[in-house]
């Protein structure tokens, strides 16, 4: 399972880089557009591990062009023993699980505390869910609940209206819920630098779009910038609330003082259309390429033996670069007209990359004939397809026979 998580993290990291470059190339400065892009990436981050684990993503055949990889298959792949691979996976799991559990417990604990604070808060006479709490130092939202400090009822009308315009934009855009989802992503994929960056970027964009809502409501940007600076001196906990007293306050103030026009909100059709396009994009990101079989002429290198397990087994794929037994026939055995066979056990990762190849049975067993080494060369020259979401193994027989 940890291998699936790592594979998903790598794909999401690359997807984030592509999205970032695309936004820069297209020069999309509308914060609503960028927010939508990063939210789609966040959803993909949760969907990818499931597709990889359940093996629901397709395989695409890739044709190797002659001359590009000529001779590469003959070079032996790095030989990593299955024991070392298992030990490495166990060590990684021993490090991953405690940290993940700690982050999840901290997130759940923060949600529970804020839930108690929200329940104890005093409702304000407004059409939406606005509450007053003595434990809140600056305006914030908890999910769809707006929380204000204890002195909020005494604020001037202009100040209260500006704050409510900001917080209602958070509620309308579901920024608090997306923030929790981003924090859950960090707790699960804390080893992926894209996870922390994605959370920070989504929260920064949420504040920007909410500031735009204040300006769109015809409040004075300069006065509102001064209000942000005041609230920044009394921050709330950043774990489970969306607050105007977040980090990036200086950039927000600069944007307000520059009187940057508010970005245009996206229509519901655009948002749902983006979600529909996300499905094939995630499936494509979860797909794996394999080398297309090059015909039956290459199927003479080895004979795959029946799988010893009920689940789908690893499949060996013969290509034009796969070595045949005749190409690596040991010179000593050839000189003495000796034939034989070797049973080879191979272990591959979820992407079909060879991890280990072992000659488990050799006939004749005398090492002077060199059948074991020759069979391992054949095994390392072939391609493999693994339909399972974890490291798997298979075995096959390599026959060495001289023509009469």
Overview of the structural elements:
The protein is an alpha+beta fold. The chain has two domains: 2-284, no CATH class; 295-400, TonB (TolA/TonB C-terminal domain, 2-Layer Sandwich), CATH 3.30.2420. The chain is 49% helix and 14% strand. The protein is built from eleven helices and 13 strands. It has helices at 2-26, 31-54, 82-120, 157-172, 175-188, 193-216, 221-232, 249-257, 268-286, 331-335, 371-381; strands at 59-62, 122-123, 130-132, 140-142, 145-148, 242-243, 288-291, 303-304, 315-317, 340-348, 354-363, 383-385, 392-400. Helix 2 packs antiparallel against helix 6 and helix 3 runs antiparallel to helix 5 (175-188). The model is unreliable at 62-82 and 290-300 (pLDDT under 50).
SSE diagram, text form:
Layout: H1 2-26, H2 31-54, E1 59-62, H3 82-120, E2 122-123, E3 130-132, E4 140-142, E5 145-148, H4 157-172, H5 175-188, H6 193-216, H7 221-232, E6 242-243, H8 249-257, H9 268-286, E7 288-291, E8 303-304, E9 315-317, H10 331-335, E10 340-348, E11 354-363, H11 371-381, E12 383-385, E13 392-400
Parallel strand pairs: 1-7, 3-5
Antiparallel strand pairs: 2-3, 4-5, 4-6, 8-13, 9-12, 10-11, 10-13
The tally of helices reads 11
> CA-to-CA gap between the ends?
51 Å
The strand line-up of the biggest sheet is 2-3-5-4-6
Regions with pLDDT < 50 over 5+ consecutive residues? 62-82, 290-300
Query: In this structure, how is the largest beta sheet organized?
Result: 5 strands, mixed
Overall helicity = 40-55%
Number of extended strands = 13
| Gyration radius from CA atoms, angstroms | 30 Å
SS-derived structural category = alpha+beta
């Amino acid at each position: 399972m940890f291998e699936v998580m790592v594979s998903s993290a790598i794909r999401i990291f690359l997807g984030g880089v592509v999205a970032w470059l695309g936004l820069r190339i297209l020069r999309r400065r509308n914060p609503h557009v960028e927010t939508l892009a990063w939210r789609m990436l966040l959803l993909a981050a949760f969907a990818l591990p499931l597709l990889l684990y359940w093996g629901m993503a397709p395989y695409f055949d890739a044709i190797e062009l002659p001359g590009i990889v000529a001779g590469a298959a003959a070079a032996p792949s790095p030989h990593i023993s299955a024991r070392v691979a298992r030990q490495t996976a166990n060590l990684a799991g021993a490090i991953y699980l405690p940290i993940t559990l700690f982050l999840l417990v901290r997130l759940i604990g923060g949600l529970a505390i804020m839930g108690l604070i929200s329940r104890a808060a005093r409702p304000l006479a407004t059409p939406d869910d606005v509450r007053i709490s003595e434990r809140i130092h600056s305006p914030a939202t908890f999910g769809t609940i707006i929380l204000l400090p204890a002195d909020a009822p005494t604020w001037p009308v202009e100040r209260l209206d500006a704050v409510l315009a900001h917080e209602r934009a958070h509620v309308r855009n579901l920024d608090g819920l997306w923030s929790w989802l981003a924090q859950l992503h960090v707790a699960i994929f804390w080893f992926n630098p894209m996870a922390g960056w994605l959370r920070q970027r989504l929260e920064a964009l949420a504040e920007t779009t909410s500031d735009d809502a204040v300006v769109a409501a015809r409040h004075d940007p300069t006065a509102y910038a001064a209000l942000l600076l005041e609230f920044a001196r009394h921050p709330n906990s950043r774990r489970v609330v969306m607050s105007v007293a977040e980090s990036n306050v200086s950039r927000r103030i600069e944007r307000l003082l520059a009187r940057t026009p508010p970005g245009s909100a996206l229509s519901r059709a655009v948002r749902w259309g983006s979600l529909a396009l996300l499905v094939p994009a995630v499936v494509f990101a979860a797909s794996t390429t394999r080398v297309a079989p090059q015909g039956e002429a290459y199927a003479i290198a080895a004979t795959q033996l029946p799988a010893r397990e009920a689940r789908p087994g690893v499949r060996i794929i013969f290509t034009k670069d796969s070595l045949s037994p005749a190409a690596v026939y040991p010179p000593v055995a050839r000189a003495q007209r000796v034939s034989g066979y070797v049973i080879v056990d191979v272990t591959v990762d979820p992407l079909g990359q060879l991890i280990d190849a072992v000659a488990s049975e050799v006939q004749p067993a005398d090492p002077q004939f060199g059948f074991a080494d020759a069979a391992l060369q054949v095994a390392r020259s072939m391609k493999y397809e693994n339909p399972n979401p974890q490291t798997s193994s298979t075995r096959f027989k390599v026959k060495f026979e001289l023509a009469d």
